[in-house]
Amino acid sequence: MIKAENLTKMFGDFTAVSKINLFIPRGQIFGFLGPNGAGKTTTIRMLTGSLKPTSGKIEILGLDMRKNELEIKRRIGVVPDEPKIYDHLKGFEYLEFIMDIYRVNNDEVKKRIKELSNAFGVDYLDKQVSDMSHGMKQKLMLISVLMRKPEVIFLDEPTVGLDARSARILKELLKKYANQGITIFLTTHILEIAEKMCDVIAIIDRGEIIAQGDIETLKKGKDKSLEDLFLELTAQEENIKNAVDIL
């Protein structure tokens, strides 16, 4: 469902992502972890067609991104780390706009909007987007993507701004979708979420994937949490100790 070969992105002389390879099958929840500035968001932007790679090949749903960009975008869903929604629209107007863009303005999708709104506690679709908090916008963005049930869903830090109840519902919903054959690609700084949810995890640091596999494979039999493993692999454990000693 998601395939990347030697995917590279350079900004001038700076290499943001360097020759990464991904192969993510149908129905898998794939966690993409890394420190700030490691290349996570750049990778998602390339995989979803909003940023052109410097080199390498991307296939989504078996389609070449270079030849089938619009078809791919029609069939995937993207929840960015910052919800970008037109401020002058009301919540329901934004959802109607998205339904019209994707040509899914039908009773089935409208029913799903009601179900998702009830689940996430969204009772403010008459409110203007400019008057919504970050968390309210995040829920609206989630509904605008999940209402379509795309075949592949990319989520960049999806629980940021969500209350505990909504975050739990989202996690359970993503597991349900994966069981139905939908592929989930998510980034998160909350390692507990990754450890409990993801079938496979890749850790990126300085633009390169430094570890990849299921939790047990990554731990290699060691009695360590994912947090300990992550800090060890990204060489941050010693920095933390030094910082605490200084304080």
TrEMBL record:
The keyword S-adenosyl-L-methionine does not apply. One of its GO terms (molecular function) is ATP binding. It comes from the Bacteria. Residues 2-231 form the ABC transporter domain. The keyword Transport applies. PROSITE patterns: ABC_TRANSPORTER_1, ABC_TRANSPORTER_2. Keywords: ATP-binding, Nucleotide-binding, Transport. Gene3D superfamilies: P-loop containing nucleotide triphosphate hydrolases. CDD domains: ABC_DR_subfamily_A (cd03230). Signal peptide: none annotated. InterPro entries: AAA+_ATPase, ABC_transporter-like_ATP-bd, ABC_transporter-like_CS, ABC_transporter_ATP-binding, P-loop_NTPase. Belongs to the ABC transporter superfamily. This is ABC transporter ATP-binding protein. The lineage of its organism: Bacteria, Thermotogati, Thermotogota, Thermotogae, Thermotogales.
